[in-house]
Amino acid sequence: MSNNIDTLATALYVKTDDLVKTTPGLAPLRPTAGFAPELSDAELVTLAVMQALLGFTSERRWLRYAGKNLRHLFPYLPQQPGYNKRLRGAAPLLLGVIRALALDTSLWTDDVWVVDSTPVECGRSKETVRRSDLAGWAEYGYCASHSRFFWGLRLHLIATLSGLPIGFALTGAKADERETLLAVFTTDPHLVADRPGQTVIGDKNYFGTGFEHQLADAGLNLLRPARKGEAPRPGAHLFKPLRQTVESIFQTLKGQLDLERHGGRTIAGVTVRVLQRLLALTSAIWHNDKTGAPTLRSLTAYDH
């Protein structure tokens, strides 16, 4: 295989099609009688990933571009309302493909993870806040890393040092990072079941004796910088460069995959668009891993 957008699309289509055949429960439910969709679930997933990698935040513009330039890959393309509806219904499938691709990389067994959260802004005007369907989930929060207030959500991410998403959660802007991390491990116990001694590196917000005991009980070793007034902690010299690592992962999601330009206006819409970007990042890392690319998180071969 070579590293370009067409070969990634072909490999992803085959992988997704095989997954749907072996795990049919991941595909959206459809009536047993009636016409089969002209765009298959594997094609839908591939189309969504290519949209994110090529930087199209508008579904209408993306479908116009695909209709003109990608007919060799997608003989049939739906209209924008149909594409949007199919995509919102495919969230469980996107989750399944993210996990399947991650498992199929050499990075899945890495023994060091980084954890952090980043804002996912959902609106700026008071009118948006008052009338949005996201009100009640989205809320006002503060991002200390960029010294700004925002209205929206937070993406909590567990990733390898190469940027492969291992686990994630989307919460309100004020959600406690420690509680969210524990909830991810509780919801998906397979993540830590066979990883005794796994190292998790976080920032100063991941603190607390009870919290660290819960991680230790799960077989996880937490490394973080010491807070003010605390004694020095092990591994302090590693935190500054690793902090830049997790920030660069978020920058890939935001700068190259337009995470904060998701355009979602409903809970389902925002959720599937965040999953779309996480899947695009996972797909690129998976394909780079399979093709022996020197930089696994590089998207430059796929963004044009």
Helix-strand blueprint:
Elements: H1 5-22, H2 41-53, H3 59-69, H4 80-89, H5 91-103, E1 112-123, H6 126-131, E2 139-143, E3 148-160, E4 165-172, H7 177-187, H8 190-193, E5 198-201, H9 209-217, E6 220-223, H10 236-256, H11 267-291
Parallel strand pairs: 1-5, 5-6
Antiparallel strand pairs: 1-3, 2-3, 3-4
Helix pairs in contact: 1-2, 1-5, 2-11, 4-11, 5-11
Would you mind describing this structure in some detail?
There is one protein chain. The chain has a domain at 112-261: Nucleotidyltransferase, domain 5, CATH 3.30.420. 46% of the residues lie in helices and 15% in strands. The mean pLDDT is 91. Strands 1, 2, 3, 4, 5 and 6 form a six-stranded mixed sheet that branches. The chain contains eleven helices and six strands. The protein is an alpha/beta fold and 304 residues long. 34% of the residues are buried. The chain has helices spanning 5-22, 41-53, 59-69, 80-89, 91-103, 126-131, 177-187, 190-193, 209-217, 236-256, 267-291; strands at residues 112-123, 139-143, 148-160, 165-172, 198-201, 220-223. Helix 1 (5-22) runs antiparallel to helix 2, helix 4 (80-89) packs across helix 11 and helix 5 packs parallel to helix 11. Helix 9 (209-217) links the parallel strand 5 and strand 6 (220-223). The two termini are 18 Å apart.
